[in-house]
Amino acid sequence: FTPFLADHLYRALGGEKSSVHLEGWPEENLEAKNSELLSDMDVVRDVVRAGLEDRERQKIPVRQALSSARVTGQRGISLALQGVLKEELNVEAVEWKTDGTFRVTVDPVLTPELEAKGLVRLLTRQVSGLRKKAGLTIGDRMTLAIQAPAGVKTMLAPHLEGFQRSVFADAIKWEEVTAEHQTTVMFKDDQIVLGF
To answer: What's the whole-model pTM score?
Structure first.
Protein backbone atom coordinates (compact mmCIF):
# COMPACT_ATOMS: atom_id res chain seq x y z
CA PHE A 1 0.00 0.00 0.00
CA THR A 2 2.76 2.47 0.92
CA PRO A 3 4.60 2.34 -2.45
CA PHE A 4 1.32 3.16 -4.23
CA LEU A 5 0.67 6.06 -1.86
CA ALA A 6 4.19 7.38 -2.48
CA ASP A 7 3.65 7.22 -6.26
CA HIS A 8 0.24 8.87 -5.95
CA LEU A 9 1.70 11.77 -3.93
CA TYR A 10 4.64 12.05 -6.34
CA ARG A 11 2.34 12.40 -9.37
CA ALA A 12 -0.04 14.75 -7.49
CA LEU A 13 2.90 17.05 -6.70
CA GLY A 14 3.93 17.21 -10.36
CA GLY A 15 6.39 14.31 -10.68
CA GLU A 16 7.33 13.74 -14.33
CA LYS A 17 8.21 10.02 -14.29
CA SER A 18 5.79 7.14 -13.88
CA SER A 19 7.05 6.41 -10.37
CA VAL A 20 8.92 8.24 -7.65
CA HIS A 21 11.13 5.15 -7.44
CA LEU A 22 12.56 5.95 -10.90
CA GLU A 23 13.86 9.34 -9.75
CA GLY A 24 17.51 9.83 -8.83
CA TRP A 25 18.56 10.93 -5.38
CA PRO A 26 18.69 14.71 -4.98
CA GLU A 27 22.15 16.22 -4.97
CA GLU A 28 23.21 17.84 -1.73
CA ASN A 29 25.45 20.88 -1.65
CA LEU A 30 27.94 19.58 0.93
CA GLU A 31 30.45 22.31 0.18
CA ALA A 32 28.05 25.02 1.34
CA LYS A 33 27.16 23.08 4.50
CA ASN A 34 30.78 22.29 5.31
CA SER A 35 31.95 25.87 4.83
CA GLU A 36 29.19 27.12 7.16
CA LEU A 37 30.08 24.48 9.75
CA LEU A 38 33.79 25.30 9.51
CA SER A 39 33.04 28.99 9.87
CA ASP A 40 30.87 28.31 12.93
CA MET A 41 33.62 26.13 14.45
CA ASP A 42 36.10 29.00 14.00
CA VAL A 43 33.71 31.20 15.97
CA VAL A 44 33.37 28.52 18.68
CA ARG A 45 37.16 28.19 19.00
CA ASP A 46 37.63 31.97 19.26
CA VAL A 47 34.84 32.34 21.83
CA VAL A 48 36.02 29.39 23.93
CA ARG A 49 39.60 30.68 23.94
CA ALA A 50 38.50 34.17 24.99
CA GLY A 51 36.01 32.80 27.56
CA LEU A 52 38.64 30.58 29.18
CA GLU A 53 41.04 33.53 29.29
CA ASP A 54 38.35 35.57 31.07
CA ARG A 55 37.79 32.73 33.56
CA GLU A 56 41.54 32.62 34.21
CA ARG A 57 41.72 36.40 34.62
CA GLN A 58 38.91 36.24 37.19
CA LYS A 59 40.45 33.15 38.83
CA ILE A 60 37.33 31.03 38.29
CA PRO A 61 38.12 27.36 37.60
CA VAL A 62 36.41 25.74 34.61
CA ARG A 63 34.86 23.09 36.86
CA GLN A 64 32.77 25.85 38.52
CA ALA A 65 29.49 26.24 36.65
CA LEU A 66 28.51 29.82 35.84
CA SER A 67 25.21 31.35 34.80
CA SER A 68 26.28 32.96 31.53
CA ALA A 69 28.88 34.21 29.12
CA ARG A 70 28.39 37.38 27.09
CA VAL A 71 29.87 37.51 23.59
CA THR A 72 30.15 40.87 21.83
CA GLY A 73 31.42 41.67 18.36
CA GLN A 74 30.77 38.21 16.94
CA ARG A 75 27.93 36.63 14.97
CA GLY A 76 25.81 33.89 16.49
CA ILE A 77 26.18 30.19 15.68
CA SER A 78 23.86 27.19 15.24
CA LEU A 79 21.97 25.87 18.27
CA ALA A 80 23.89 22.59 18.19
CA LEU A 81 27.23 24.39 18.41
CA GLN A 82 25.88 26.69 21.14
CA GLY A 83 25.48 23.52 23.21
CA VAL A 84 29.15 22.68 22.60
CA LEU A 85 30.11 26.23 23.53
CA LYS A 86 28.12 26.15 26.78
CA GLU A 87 29.70 22.83 27.71
CA GLU A 88 33.25 24.01 26.95
CA LEU A 89 32.81 27.21 28.98
CA ASN A 90 30.67 25.45 31.64
CA VAL A 91 27.96 28.10 31.51
CA GLU A 92 24.16 27.83 31.54
CA ALA A 93 23.58 30.36 28.73
CA VAL A 94 25.44 32.36 26.09
CA GLU A 95 24.27 35.88 25.25
CA TRP A 96 25.21 37.32 21.83
CA LYS A 97 25.65 40.97 20.88
CA THR A 98 26.90 41.29 17.30
CA ASP A 99 28.09 44.90 17.38
CA GLY A 100 31.17 46.21 19.17
CA THR A 101 34.69 44.89 19.67
CA PHE A 102 35.11 41.13 20.03
CA ARG A 103 35.07 40.23 23.71
CA VAL A 104 33.87 37.36 25.88
CA THR A 105 33.04 37.87 29.55
CA VAL A 106 31.74 35.30 31.99
CA ASP A 107 29.37 36.28 34.77
CA PRO A 108 31.27 35.59 38.03
CA VAL A 109 28.23 35.77 40.34
CA LEU A 110 27.73 32.40 42.02
CA THR A 111 24.26 31.47 43.17
CA PRO A 112 23.85 28.62 45.68
CA GLU A 113 22.67 26.40 42.81
CA LEU A 114 25.78 27.17 40.73
CA GLU A 115 28.01 26.51 43.74
CA ALA A 116 26.27 23.15 44.22
CA LYS A 117 26.85 22.25 40.56
CA GLY A 118 30.52 23.14 40.96
CA LEU A 119 30.72 20.95 44.06
CA VAL A 120 29.12 18.02 42.25
CA ARG A 121 31.53 18.40 39.35
CA LEU A 122 34.53 18.59 41.70
CA LEU A 123 33.48 15.53 43.70
CA THR A 124 32.65 13.54 40.57
CA ARG A 125 36.12 14.25 39.21
CA GLN A 126 37.74 13.24 42.50
CA VAL A 127 35.78 9.98 42.78
CA SER A 128 36.48 9.14 39.12
CA GLY A 129 40.21 9.58 39.77
CA LEU A 130 39.96 7.45 42.90
CA ARG A 131 38.12 4.72 40.99
CA LYS A 132 40.81 4.75 38.32
CA LYS A 133 43.61 4.46 40.92
CA ALA A 134 41.75 1.53 42.51
CA GLY A 135 41.47 -0.20 39.12
CA LEU A 136 37.67 -0.15 39.05
CA THR A 137 35.75 -0.32 35.78
CA ILE A 138 32.29 1.02 34.92
CA GLY A 139 30.77 -2.33 35.89
CA ASP A 140 32.35 -2.23 39.35
CA ARG A 141 30.03 -0.76 41.97
CA MET A 142 30.97 0.46 45.44
CA THR A 143 29.60 2.21 48.50
CA LEU A 144 30.98 5.72 48.73
CA ALA A 145 31.69 7.21 52.15
CA ILE A 146 31.72 10.98 52.48
CA GLN A 147 33.03 12.85 55.50
CA ALA A 148 32.10 16.52 55.27
CA PRO A 149 30.55 19.40 57.21
CA ALA A 150 26.75 19.64 57.36
CA GLY A 151 26.73 22.57 54.90
CA VAL A 152 28.32 20.40 52.20
CA LYS A 153 25.75 17.65 52.83
CA THR A 154 22.92 20.19 52.53
CA MET A 155 24.37 21.63 49.33
CA LEU A 156 24.80 18.18 47.77
CA ALA A 157 21.39 16.82 48.85
CA PRO A 158 19.35 17.93 45.78
CA HIS A 159 22.00 16.47 43.46
CA LEU A 160 22.77 13.30 45.43
CA GLU A 161 20.90 10.83 43.22
CA GLY A 162 22.54 12.05 39.99
CA PHE A 163 25.95 12.21 41.69
CA GLN A 164 25.55 8.65 42.96
CA ARG A 165 24.73 7.42 39.43
CA SER A 166 27.62 9.35 37.86
CA VAL A 167 30.21 7.79 40.19
CA PHE A 168 28.69 4.27 39.90
CA ALA A 169 27.98 3.96 43.61
CA ASP A 170 25.39 1.58 45.01
CA ALA A 171 25.04 3.80 48.06
CA ILE A 172 26.44 6.91 49.70
CA LYS A 173 27.08 6.99 53.43
CA TRP A 174 27.80 10.15 55.41
CA GLU A 175 30.37 8.92 57.90
CA GLU A 176 34.01 9.05 58.91
CA VAL A 177 36.09 7.69 56.05
CA THR A 178 38.38 4.82 57.00
CA ALA A 179 38.35 3.09 53.61
CA GLU A 180 41.42 1.77 51.82
CA HIS A 181 40.85 4.05 48.83
CA GLN A 182 40.34 7.66 49.87
CA THR A 183 41.08 11.22 48.88
CA THR A 184 40.69 14.62 50.50
CA VAL A 185 39.52 17.71 48.65
CA MET A 186 38.87 21.30 49.69
CA PHE A 187 35.72 23.15 48.65
CA LYS A 188 35.87 26.77 49.74
CA ASP A 189 36.98 26.40 53.37
CA ASP A 190 35.48 22.92 53.84
CA GLN A 191 37.54 19.73 53.89
CA ILE A 192 35.78 16.78 52.25
CA VAL A 193 37.05 13.20 52.52
CA LEU A 194 35.81 10.64 49.98
CA GLY A 195 36.49 6.91 50.11
CA PHE A 196 35.37 3.37 49.40
So the answer is: 0.69
Q: How far apart are CA 128 and CA 132, in angstroms?
A: 6
Q: How far is CA 48 from CA 3, 52, 63, 73, 115, in A?
A: 49, 6, 14, 14, 22
Residue 144's Cβ-count burial label (10 Å; 0-12, 13-18, 19+) is: buried
First to last CA, the chain: 61
CA-to-CA dists, residue 49 to 40, 88, 100, angstroms: 14, 10, 18
Return the SS3 of 25.
coil
Provide the percentage of residues in the chain whose pLDDT is more than 70: 96
CA dihedral over 118, 120, 122, 125, signed as positive or negative: negative
Rounded Cα gap, residues 87 and 74, in angstroms: 19
Question: What is the pLDDT at residue 80?
Answer: 84
